[in-house]
Structure formats: structure tokens, C-alpha cells
Design goal:
The complex is a heterodimer of chains A (about 160) and B (about 400). By secondary structure, chain A is α/β, with parallel strands linked by helices. Helices cover about 30% and strands about 10% of the residues of chain A. Chain A contains 5 helices and 5 strands, in the order ββααβαβαβα. In chain A, the strands form 2 sheets. In chain A, strands 3-4-5 form a 3-stranded parallel beta sheet. Chain A has a two-stranded antiparallel sheet with strand order 1-2. Chain A is elongated. Chain B folds into 2 domains: about 45 residues, no CATH class; about 325 residues, Cytochrome-c3 Hydrogenase, chain B. Classes of the chains: A alpha/beta (about 160), B alpha+beta (about 400). At the A-B interface, α2 of A face α1, α4, α5 and α16 of B.
Chain lengths: ~160, ~400
């Protein structure tokens, strides 16, 4: 964000930039734990990793109040319609992180029960590899989402397609 | 109002009386995973609860049938993801019994197995306590618990290379010996634990709000517990001191000195206290195992038909090269037969029924997941309670859905 500061008590910036900066600093994830990765998703809120530094510690249980869906774990075919519906219920703009090998590609479960990649159901912005990924990986993914928002990428409130 | 026996669906909403059907989950912050409970409620009171499972069905048992005996361990470890070692140890014990090499497992490997079983129990109970606290509005407990758990994950990562699924316990022993510096980390953990446990007890045990929410809630009578096949801390909270570690000792548990905590009240608070006491008993076992780790020794059975020979022998011995090639390319073969092996996982009696037809892949692996049976008791526990108490009951049963649905 380009900011021109002056000796007085005001600063100048483009409204777009300020809005994007504000938006990127409060990306609220949806509380949707699926499997093993959900435990690592909880770990990022703990003291050691502290996702609050990125402004994303407010996990919301209602999709209406969430900006970010972290698909944390294997998605069974029975769960797939639920994930899709939750995504549809989230208000725009919204982002999706596919956390872990199972969510990204089915992982080691190449069988009848697991969706082979949730990008067949919902659009994914960032994939995090690992089984499960370390909390650092998830923090980096949230960072990438913030970067996308600041650059006015897909989904930003002032994005110009 | 009459109790219907047919499964509850949202279509049966309009019944006579004030009853309505409410779907709780599968996306709900307090169902600890992807559980759906169809609730028939009258006002705030639950009349009937029907757990609807299967939202995390992964086909792990079926997948395991297509993998080598040693590869199957990777998928099996992802069933109970809060306590991965209990899965892999139980499976390894079952396969070792089929192979007839149970007595040949080196002593050091057996000690390290016990060590990790108990560490993983503490880690699992930490997650349970943290999330149980959040469900009841005590958020700070979560941070204490996850800080403690992080220490155990560090130990797992040091030994096995991964934080959550280290795949450290293998058929025939362990993946490798403990790395340098591990014992110092373990000592630091052993020293840190009692103080942290005092903090956790201080935060919750005498907390009046926590007591109001849990004492007298979800009373599971000993008879009902047996009828529902409940095991683990949930059973021991109802006054029955059944523990697989004592009843059918494995991996040398009979040589460790520990108690099995039992409470007779049968409510959510009793289950809470049993788990806290269990964490302390696990700490006792960890201390004893630590004292046995000073003597070095092998951690893998010396049987070229089951485990690959050491890498440095391959360049020197033709036989070692052949064995190595066979193990890597087609795995080991297990004599025909079937065996049931159970261990005490943090949630109860975890069992694997393993069938072999003599090939290099399992014919069938059937799991007895403790969470599945514990969870079913919700049907009996929920009626008559408030919806808010259902969250307490669920939390006190500590189900893990990777294991329920598999």
C-alpha cells in the first residue's frame, strides 16, 4: 500500500488500498474440522503458532460470518454435499484453502469413499501439501490469501475482474 | 408423546404435540468432527437422539487390503488421529502374533513402544480437555493443553519424523532408534508435566461453572455402560475398572507400576476426573520407561524374512542384498490364520481382527473402534437432558470420527 505521510496528523492513501488492507487483516475462517488436519488447524490458534497475529483467530461457526473455508482433511462422498452447501452459504467475498494431501488430491486414500480433490466441488485458492501439513504451512497459506487480497485478486471487495 | 422406532428425518417434523426434529451437525463446533445427531426435542429438552455417522468414511479397511502388510500401517495410523501410536502398535502386535515373533521383539523396542503409547495418551487427553473446555466456555484451558501437547508432538517428530502420524512403531520393532538429544527433551517434558497438570486441575476441577455444567449430567450406569459396550475412561467413570493394560497385558505392561483410576458416579464430571487421573498415571509409566532407556540395544527384530537387513550389510553379503530386495519389492509374507489383538487406546479397547491367507497383503482387517461404541451410548444418555447438556455429554465421551467412520 502506497502511503504518503505528512508532518501533520493525516495521511493519504487510495481508498482501494486501505479497504484491501483492512479486509486482508481480518480473514475469519469457518469452524469446519473434518479429520486429522483439523487438529493442526486448531493448533495454529494455540500459543506457539498464534494465528491471531494475522487477524484470523476468530473461527466462526456460522458460514454467514466466515470469509475463509479451510477444508481440513479427507472429504468423504457423504460429506461432499455438505461442504458444497457450506461454501454456497458463505457470503462473498470468500476464499478456500485446501489443507493437506487428502483435501487437495485424495492423498493416500485413492478409493471409493474419498473425494479425489475438493477442487472438483469448490474453487480452491491455496493448496497446502502435507499429511497433515505443519501449522507453519497453514499460516503461510493464510499469508498467501492475504497477499492475494492486497493485490486485488479474485474475490476482493474492490476487485476488478 | 410416543417414541417412534423409525429413523428420524427432517420430513417427520410435523408430529402431534410440541416435538420438533433438529439436526445437529455435521458442521457444528461442538460435535468434535463430522457427526450429525438427529434430535427430537420438546422445547429445550431432548426426547430422542439418533447419531448419524459416516460423514468421514474413508474406506481405510478396504484400502489396507490392497497394500503390503507394512504399508497398511500408514493408513491404519490415520484412524484415531489423536493417538496414532495406539493404532500402529495394535496392528503391529496382531501381525507379530500371526508371524509368531511376539517373543522376539527386542526389549528396548518394547520399552519405547510403551513410552509412546503413554505419551500419545497424554497428548490425546490434552486435545480432549482443551476442546471440552472450549465447549463449556473455558477457553484458556485450550492454550495450556495445546502447549503441553506441542511438547509431545516434538518428541514424536524427533523419533518418527512427523508430528502427527510418525509411523514409528513397525511390525518387528521400531522404525529406528531414538535420535540424539531425545532423552534430554523427554526429561524436560517429564519435569514440566506435574506443574502443568496442577495448572489444568486448578483451572477446571474446582471451577463452580464447570462443576455445574458437568456434575450429574449424562449419568451412565454400570449396567448401561456394559450394554452399550462402552470401554475406556467412559466405562471407568461408571465404576467398572476394566483396562486392557491390566486385563490382557501386552508389550510388557505387567512390568510397570500404575493404577487404573475408577470413579463410581458415572456422570460427565467423573469421566473428566478419570481422564485427568489417567494422564498422571501415564506420566508415571513414562517415568518408569525413561529409566529403562539408558541401556542401549537393538530396536528391530533380527529376522530377514520380516525386516530388511541393515543397509551397510548389503554391499558385503549376497544374502542380505536378496533379503533387502525381497522385502522392499514384495514385502513379507504372513502365515495363514486370523488373530484378534486389542490395546487400551485413550478412548477404550481398540482391537484389530486381522486375517491372513498367506500372502503379502492382509486379507481382511476389521477394527473394533472404541469411539464407535462409546458414541452409540448417546442414544441412551441424551433423552431427558437439555440440548446444551448434549454438548457436555458428547465431549465427555471423547469420540474421534476418523475412528468411528474409518
Amino acid at each position: 500500500m502506497a502511503v504518503a505521510s505528512s508532518p501533520g496528523h493525516f495521511m493519504l492513501a487510495k481508498l482501494d488500498d486501505v479497504a484491501r488492507w483492512a479486509q486482508s487483516s481480518s480473514v475469519w475462517p469457518l469452524t469446519m474440522g473434518l479429520a486429522c488436519c483439523a487438529i493442526e488447524m486448531m493448533t495454529v490458534t494455540s500459543a506457539e503458532y498464534d494465528i491471531a497475529r494475522l487477524g484470523s483467530e476468530v473461527f466462526r461457526s456460522s458460514p454467514r460470518q466466515a470469509d475463509l473455508m479451510i477444508v481440513s482433511g479427507r472429504v468423504a462422498w457423504k460429506m461432499a454435499p455438505v461442504v458444497k452447501r457450506l461454501y454456497d452459504q458463505m457470503a462473498d467475498p470468500k476464499w478456500v484453502i485446501s489443507m493437506g494431501a487428502c483435501a487437495s488430491s485424495g492423498g493416500i486414500f485413492d478409493n471409493y469413499a474419498v473425494v479425489q480433490g475438493i477442487d472438483t466441488i469448490v474453487p480452491v485458492d491455496v493448496y497446502v501439501p502435507g499429511c497433515p501439513p505443519s501449522p507453519d504451512g497453514l499460516l503461510y497459506a493464510v499469508n498467501l490469501i492475504q497477499q492475494q487480497i492486497r493485490e486485488g485478486g479474485r474475490g476482493g471487495i474492490l476487485s476488478r475482474s | 408423546m410416543t417414541m417412534s422406532t423409525q429413523p428420524l428425518t427432517p420430513e417427520i417434523v410435523s408430529q402431534e404435540g410440541n416435538a420438533m426434529v433438529l439436526s445437529m451437525g455435521p458442521q457444528h463446533p461442538s460435535t468434535h468432527g463430522v457427526l450429525q445427531i438427529m434430535l427430537e426435542i420438546e422445547g429445550e429438552t431432548v426426547v430422542k437422539a439418533e447419531p448419524e455417522i459416516g460423514y468421514l468414511h474413508t474406506g481405510i479397511e478396504k484400502t489396507a487390503e490392497n497394500l503390503f502388510w507394512s504399508q497398511a500401517q500408514t493408513v491404519i495410523e490415520r484412524m484415531d488421529y489423536l493417538a496414532p501410536e495406539s493404532n500402529s502398535l495394535c496392528y503391529a502386535l496382531a501381525v507379530e502374533r500371526l508371524l509368531g515373533i511376539t517373543d522376539g521383539i527386542p526389549e528396548r523396542a518394547r520399552v519405547i513402544r510403551v513410552l509412546f503409547m503413554e505419551l500419545t495418551r497424554i497428548a490425546s487427553h490434552c486435545v480432549w480437555l482443551g476442546t471440552h473446555g472450549i465447549d463449556l466456555g473455558a477457553i484458556s484451558v485450550f492454550f495450556y493443553c495445546f502447549d503441553l501437547r506441542e511438547n509431545i508432538l516434538d518428541l514424536q517428530e524427533a523419533a518418527g519424523g512427523a508430528r502427527m502420524h510418525p509411523n514409528y512403531v513397525r511390525v518387528g520393532g521400531l522404525n529406528g532408534d531414538l535420535p540424539n538429544g531425545f532423552l534430554a527433551k523427554l526429561d524436560a517434558f517429564i519435569e514440566k508435566f506435574p506443574g502443568r497438570m496442577r495448572d489444568l486441575r486448578g483451572l477446571l476441577q474446582a471451577n463452580p461453572i464447570f462443576q455445574d455444567r458437568t456434575i450429574g449430567v449424562g449419568i451412565l450406569s454400570p449396567e448401561a455402560a456394559l450394554e452399550w459396550n462402552v470401554t475406556g475412561p467412559s466405562l471407568r467413570g461408571s465404576g467398572i475398572g476394566y483396562d486392557v493394560r491390566k486385563a490382557f497385558p501386552y508389550t510388557g505392561y505387567d512390568s510397570y507400576d500404575f493404577d487404573v483410576p475408577v470413579r463410581s458416579e458415572g456422570d460427565a464430571y467423573a469421566r473428566f476426573l478419570v481422564r485427568l487421573d489417567e494422564m498422571e498415571q501415564s506420566h508415571r509409566i513414562v517415568e518408569q520407561a525413561r529409566r529403562r532407556l539408558d541401556t542401549p540395544g537393538p530396536v528391530l527384530i533380527d529376522d530377514p524374512k520380516v525386516t530388511a537387513p541393515p543397509k551397510e550389510t548389503i554391499a558385503l553379503s549376497m544374502e542380505a542384498l536378496i533379503h533387502h530386495f525381497k522385502i522392499v519389492s514384495e514385502g513379507f509374507r504372513v502365515p495363514p490364520g486370523d488373530v484378534y489383538q486389542s490395546v487400551e487406546s485413550p478412548r477404550g479397547e481398540l482391537g484389530y481382527y486381522v486375517v491372513s491367507t498367506g500372502g503379502n497383503r492382509p486379507y481382511r482387517i476389521r477394527t473394533r473402534p472404541p469411539s464407535m461404541y462409546n458414541l452409540q451410548s448417546v442414544k441412551g444418555l441424551a433423552p431427558g437432558n437439555l440440548i446444551a447438556d448434549l454438548v457436555v455429554i458428547l465431549g465427555s465421551l471423547d469420540p474421534v470420527f476418523g475412528e468411528v467412520d474409518r
